[in-house]
Fold this protein.
Amino acid sequence: MVEVVPSILSADFARLGEQIAAVEAAGARMLHVDVMDGHFVPNLTVGPPVVRSIRNVTRMILDVHFMLAEPERYIGPFVEAGADQISVHQETCPHLDRTLRLIQSEGARAGVVLNPATPVTMLEEVLELADFVLLMSVNPGFGAQQFIPRTLDKVRALDRRRRELGLRVPIEIDGGVHQHNIAEVVQAGVNWVVAGSAIFHSPDPGAAFSELQRLAREATAVRV
């Protein structure tokens, strides 16, 4: 089943609890939390205390995306704070196999993230280990960017490869997805669609989520 995953990067942090409750009431089952360090990407966001606060107000799966130069240092604290799954960038992990196993040993699901310019072939040696793969469809660091269309070719290539290997590893996509392109994203093979500004920049985040989820599920009937 395709899932739309609201991203709090675009939420109003003065109303964060309220907006989280709105998308959860509308049926969201996962919540995307971007963690940026100002080194790997040119921005700073949240730490374990914010994740702990979110954990206290929702039962949704917390999908924590590390955009960190040294992700291994932070896995334990974020899992303790309530992260259900953590994804790390292939570009920041010289010992990617070890890092994924460390996440799993802490009791969370482990994902690998690829930047737009990183080919999916870089996943070949860990694809059977990872619990999910996140493909960035914008350059990481900021919200409300334009979708990079060539990402769909990467999605199709990864979808072919997982089918060749007989894997069911979910493909997640993050960046620039909205109501006008979500169908082609899903039709390419994406399972989890992260959406930030398309949901939280709307006057009614719950309604915006519901509309995206409807479009995504309708699109599953067609594959290209």
Notes: The two ends are 17 Å apart (CA to CA). Residues 3-219 form a domain with the TIM Barrel fold (CATH 3.20.20.70). The chain has one domain: 3-219.
